[in-house]
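Inverse folding, one chain.
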């Protein structure tokens, strides 16, 4: 996209050129990325771009857009550039202190909502007590609180910067009164005798020995603290399984996300703990093993 051109840089021309530019640089969903960045630069909705194809943005808007195009072509994620990502039909603020919410995690949320609904059906006068390990942007906890009114959530993260983002999202979606955010290494700062009906987590599960397989934009821009779960990728998950055996109340359930590369290994860890029934392995939209669900025995 050059500064000077014989033709005006209309919205349509900008989108066509940018999508091609992103494609040449190997960026995923280049047309979508172009639309998100341009609509944000113009301060309008994506759908509005199609009614304004012949409009020519003013120079300050073009300056902002060109900067974003350059940075995304170099690998910086669109979500960090515009400061948000949509998840489960809600908009979440994000920055480089938190992982960008992904569609795969919506499957975890669906499973958690299903458990909560069954729990409330059998205990109509009670609330569902939930612990989320590694809340990040808060997308799981906030979505659960939006979808399940009779719920009490403790959402922990070891990163104070991530908790700032999570609290902001809870306030935005008006559920902060039902979520207790806590800076903690797993359950270290939770009262020893406190138990939960449901434990959910999208923990760090990428093995450092497979970091080279990550997309460059993920490896360079998303927080390593939230990505890597040890050399193999199951180390933190193993700790979550152990604490869940203590923290889950009778009839409680553990639901967590993992990598298809280590899903079978995670299921084995659940079995070896001796505290859970046979774990279920659920697939994501790409038909890859992604979610582990296990009910506490006894």
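Residues assigned per position:
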């Amino acid at each position: 996209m050059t500064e000077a051109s014989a033709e005006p840089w209309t919205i349509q021309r900008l989108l066509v050129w940018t999508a091609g530019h992103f494609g040449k640089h190997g960026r995923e969903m280049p047309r979508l990325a172009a639309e998100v960045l341009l609509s944000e630069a113009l301060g309008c909705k994506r759908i509005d771009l199609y009614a304004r194809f012949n409009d020519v943005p003013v120079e300050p808007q073009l300056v902002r857009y060109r900067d974003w195009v350059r940075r995304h072509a170099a690998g910086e994620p669109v979500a960090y550039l515009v400061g948000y990502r949509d998840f489960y039909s809600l908009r979440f603020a994000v920055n480089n202190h938190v992982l960008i919410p992904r569609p795969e995690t919506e499957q975890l949320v669906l499973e958690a909502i299903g458990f909560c609904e069954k729990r409330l059906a059998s205990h109509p006068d009670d609330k569902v007590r939930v612990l989320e390990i590694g809340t990040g942007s808060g997308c799981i906890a906030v979505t659960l609180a939006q979808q399940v009114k009779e719920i009490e959530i403790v959402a922990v993260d070891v990163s104070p910067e991530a908790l700032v983002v999570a609290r902001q999202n809870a306030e935005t979606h008006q559920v902060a009164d039902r979520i207790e955010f806590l800076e903690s290494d797993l359950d270290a700062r939770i009262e020893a005798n406190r138990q939960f009906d449901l434990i959910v987590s999208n923990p760090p599960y990428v093995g450092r020995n497979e970091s080279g397989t990550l997309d460059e934009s993920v490896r360079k821009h998303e927080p390593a603290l939230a990505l890597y779960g040890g050399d193999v990728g199951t180390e933190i998950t193993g700790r979550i399984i152990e604490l869940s055996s203590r923290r889950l109340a009778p009839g409680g359930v553990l639901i967590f996300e993992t990598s298809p590369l280590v899903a079978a290994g995670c299921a084995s860890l659940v079995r070896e703990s001796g505290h859970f029934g046979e774990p279920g392995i659920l697939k994501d939209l790409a038909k890859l093993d992604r979610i582990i669900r296990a009910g506490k025995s006894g």
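Residues 11-74 form one domain. The chain is about 40% helix and 20% strand.
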